[in-house]
Amino acid sequence: MSDRGRGGPRGRGRGEGGGPPPQRGRGIGGPAPRGRGAHLLGTPAQGGPGIPSNHVTAVGVKRSAFGTAGRAIQVITNHFEVKIPQGLIYHYDAITPDKLPARANMELLVRLQEVLEPGIFTPRGVYDGRKNLFSIRRYPFENDTRTFDVTLGNTPAQDSPGNAQKPKKGPKGYKVKLTKVAEINPELLSQFTLGNQSHAEEILTTITALNIVVRMEPTIRYPFNVRSFFTKDERQDIGGGLELWRGYFQSVRPAIGKMVINLDISTGVMYRAGPLIELCLQFLGKDKAAVLSPTQGFPERERLRLQRFVSGLRITSPFGPQAGRPRGIRKLTAAGASALSFTPRDGPATTVARFFQQTYNRQVRYPNIVCAELASGAIIPLEFCDVVEGQIMRKQFPQEKTDAMVKFSTKKPADRLNSIMKGLGVLSYGQSEYIRAFGLDVATQNPLVVNARVLDPPRMLYRGPQASVMPRDGAWNMIQKKFYQPSSVKGWVVVIYEPRFNDQAAQSMVQGLVQTCGETGVVFQDQQPPIIRQNGQGNIGDQLKQAGTALYRNKGYPPDLIVAVLPQGSADIYQAIKHFGDVTQGVATQCLSSQKCSRANQQYYANVALKINVKLGGINTVPDPRSVSILTDPSNPTIVMGADEIHPAPGPGSDTKPSFTAVVASVDSDSAKYIADCQVQTGRRQMIDDLKGMTKALLGKYMGYRKNVEKKANNRPKRLLFFRDGVSEGQFQQVLDLELPLIKEACVELEVDPKITIIVVGKRHHVRFFPRSGADADRSTNCRAGTVVDRDITSPLENDFFLQSHAGIIGTSRPAHYNVLYDENNFTPDGLQSLSFALCHVYARSTRSVSIPAPVYYADIVCSRAKNHYQPGTNLDLSDTGTVDNATERLQQYKDNFKPLHQKMQQLMYFS
User: Fold this and answer.
1) Over the stretch 847-875, which tens digit does the pLDDT of each residue have?
2) Beta bridge partners of 266
3) How far apart are CA 642 and CA 639, in angstroms?
4) CB burial class (10 A; 0-12, 13-18, 19+) of residue 791?
5) In what order do the strands lie in the sheet with 79-83?
6) Angle formed by the axes of helices 540-555 and 571-578, to 10°?
């Protein structure tokens, strides 16, 4: 379940554009300049660009002001201004053959416009490869509709095994129907950017049209994937038959006062071009073709794995129907060319190998290895197939290649900005006939410089002589400090699953862990725990239970903590341990890497201590109440919640796999201690089905903690802050229509009435910030932690902002995008931005601020660990290879086998 399936990249359309030029010499909190044409339509905006007119409506909360807190700076961003076209744009429905890929549809429309009917399609329209075609000309169709006959290719069919009995046919013809459905006036979009026009379907359609205009040229020339295209100018072979290609992302977005293009670099995973037989061997990690022979031991399991990898792959061959043209692989045969028999139209039965010898005078060098069966039914030996260059691998990316992907994709800010500027040359906006025809003018000389502020971090509280610390550049240390609320360990056991981790290493590990935890305040009453060695091939649950039972017999009490030392590549052992501790027995578990323990230093054990303390009920650190009064106001008890969901990875059988949802909530007065709930639901459903029940359960635990642990007289929340991850901008309305009522119903049933604020946190976008000077950069040359932008590249209507809350380590940091959908608390921009920044500092596993608020981060972790709720060995395939015919029955199996957390774990941060 690695692919998050978010319903598309976040923040497209209205929330991620650019803004008016920065006003030099003006403080960020000062009055904004008046926008051009502010009185052209409707009520004038109250306060200038970015403060929408009273009469307009928005999906989320309308912006009423800008933030003023922090140190005012300016940053460079990867946006370029675009001039909005003046004339009408005509929108046509393009009905093409069902089930053709976008690439083939694009080929049809290009051929129609450039070869078959150039007189009609001058100037040429732009097409998205699916349904929409836009033109600046109204085509001379009778009743505004016309159907065209379009053929692709001109090579007559030839005989080939598998289809030799079929009659010969010429190039395949297709029907393409175009129908005018609307006329678009871009002036509405102009008014939208000025805050004088409500968000409407016409606005979305216009933005879609402009995006298709700028993508048309590169889509024709390069391999593409939705909003990115890729060139072979910069690529890297990562093995396994795969290459990484440098690509460019581009998206036209509305901003305050204008339209902009958001341009960024991206990475495409491509199949390596060349002989198909070499690709197959690279995938399997072999070098001899004989390994592909079923008669010489090629396992069926491996054949099916290879088949999944190459299915859908386009190849060319000098033989067979449409020789030389790309054709798709449907599957791999179970036998070799010398063993596969068929009967040609005019002749006796023969084998594939003999057919190629007799028909094409080509001897098959590897007659015993599997062959490729094409979509047409033709069978061609692998050695006669060549992989077409520039094919994007759209299946699940191999986990073992992740490091190579990260290394290739990661660039320091200056290098990334240089690559983006290089992309402008590849795009050649000024030379695109489509951009010129539509009248778009892209200002490519310099990226936009926008107004920003650097927020002050919250002071963090600990225990000890120096009880507080002020983070600097998103980080701080715990020298001479103890945890704010340290826990204690009465009994514990160590279980070692790595046989090479010797007794000396084990004793060193115990000593280092006990000593470092003691310095943080976590006390191990027994400093010489039992050390037990086990075989990872055994029943992990039984082994851990035996270890706990042995401790109980010897000491008279069960373990509070089980520490397990694991070898590399031990995901199955890890899952079994977490299932035992979190679900079955309700005991804290901490897994350690044997490799890291062998060369561990104090810093490593300090990081482990951060996890152990909160798993046992402690609190590591809290923000100083004076830094975040919104969260700690005793007269307004506040519960902070985070929600996320994870979807099945694309691939065979993915439609029968479920999605997992998670909601976490704070229980303490400092919004630092969290609990979680996780559920399973229908796959790829974007809204959380059981949000009412999950919210109700978490609210109950919040009130119980305040009453029973904190001894608060007022245990009912007056504020509920709900941070939602995992939804795209197109789903904002669904959050308001479907999820908000469930939260409110949960509150009603518990007889609480908090004021609710809902904020969507997006991180899958391509907005980046680059410091203008060294003074505004941290040690990684990124913008400093706390850099916030709520002007210039934000929504013309809605209350949104970008916050880069973490310090850069490698590459270019990505800010989180916050969209305020609902706000009964009427928070000020400064209030929302400061509390969001503060929540990025309470992530228990580090002494650094993180990129998104801790409750959102926790919800993400809980989702990714949903598989731990299943009993190890359960016959449920959570990988990308499982299939089942009955999706409903399969979902019910997942639900029935999903085990709830142990009651003890429901009160603890087991997920840390």
Assistant:
1) 999 999 999 999 999 999 999 999 998 87
2) 247
3) 10
4) buried
5) 224-225, 228-239, 242-254, 259-271, 79-83, 441-442
6) 50
The closest of 476, 519, 361, 568 to 843, measured between CA atoms, is 476
SS3 for 80?
Answer: strand
771 strand-pairing partners: 75
**Structure token digits, residue 360:** 């094409």
**CA 329 to CA 327: how far, in whole Å?**
7
Lowest model confidence (mean pLDDT) among 152-166, 466-480, 857-871: 152-166
Amino acid at the residue 71: R
Instruction: State the average pLDDT over residues 161-170.
Output: 59
For each of the domains in the chain, give its residue range(s) and CATH number, in order of start: 274-388 (2.170.260.10), 486-615 (3.40.50.2300)
Does 428 or 179 have the greater pLDDT score?
A: 179
Mean pLDDT of the chain: 91
Of 724, 817, 857, the C-alpha closest to 262 is 817
Kindly state the DSSP code that residue 30 receives in the 8-state scheme.
Answer: S
Q: DSSP letters along 424-493, please?
A: HHHH-GGG-HHHHHHT-EE--SS--EEEEEEPPPPPEE-BSSS-EE--BTTB---TT-B-SB--EES-EE
pLDDT of res. 163: 66
| Cα 144 from chain centre | 41
Owner of token pair 């507080």: 468
872 preceded by a cis bond (ω within 30 of 0):
no
Would you say 386 and 277 are in contact if contact means Cβ atoms under 8 Å apart? no
pLDDT of residue 159: 53
Asked whether the predicted pLDDT for residue 426 surpasses 50, the reply is yes
Check residue 892 and give left, alpha or beta (phi > 0: left; psi -120 to 50: alpha): alpha
Which pLDDT belongs to residue 639?
Answer: 98
- DSSP characters for 803-857? EE-S---SS----EEEEEEEETT---HHHHHHHHHHHTT--TT-SB--SS-HHHH
Q: Is the pLDDT of residue 102 over 70?
A: yes
**Span between the terminal Cα atoms of the chain, in Å:** 20
Spatial contact of 62 and 765, defined as CB atoms under 8 Å apart = no
Residue 179, classified by CB atoms within 10 Å of its CB into exposed (0-12), middle (13-18) or buried (19+), is: middle
Check residue 12 and give its pLDDT.
32
Q: Is 784 helix (H, G, I), strand (E, B) or coil?
A: coil
Contacts by residues 890-895 (CB-CB < 8 Å, ≥ 24 positions apart):
890/656, 890/657, 891/656, 891/658, 891/682, 891/683, 894/657, 894/658, 894/680, 895/658, 895/680
Reading the block at residue 382, the tokens are 């692998």
Distance CA 404, CA 833 (A): 35
Q: Show the DSSP H helices in 466-570 as ranges.
A: 503-520, 540-555
Q: Are strands 89-95 and 488-489 parallel, antiparallel or unpaired?
A: unpaired
Task: Supply φ then ψ for residue 282, to 5 degrees.
Answer: -65, -40
The answer to whether the CB of 782 falls within 8 A of the CB of 475 is: no
Q: Which two tokens stand for residue 322?
A: 């449409």
pLDDT one-digit tens code per residue, 632-641: 999 999 999 9
DSSP label at 140? -
Listed in sequence order, the residues at least 6 apart from 774 whose beta carbon sits closer than 8 Å to its beta carbon are none
The CA dihedral of 548, 554, 558, 559, to the nearest 10 degrees, is -70
What is the spatial distance between Cα 614 and Cα 90, in angstroms, rounded to a whole number? 59
CB atoms near residue 690 (< 10 Å): 16
608-628 per-position pLDDT tens digit: 999 999 999 999 999 999 999
pLDDT recorded at residue 15: 34
Give the DSSP letter of residue 777: B
- The span from the CA of 561 to the CA of 867, in Å, is 22
**Coil, helix or strand at residue 392:** strand
pLDDT band at 164 (very low <50, low <70, confident <90, very high): low
- Rounded CA-CA distance 461/261 in Å is 43
- Better pLDDT: 282 or 101: 282
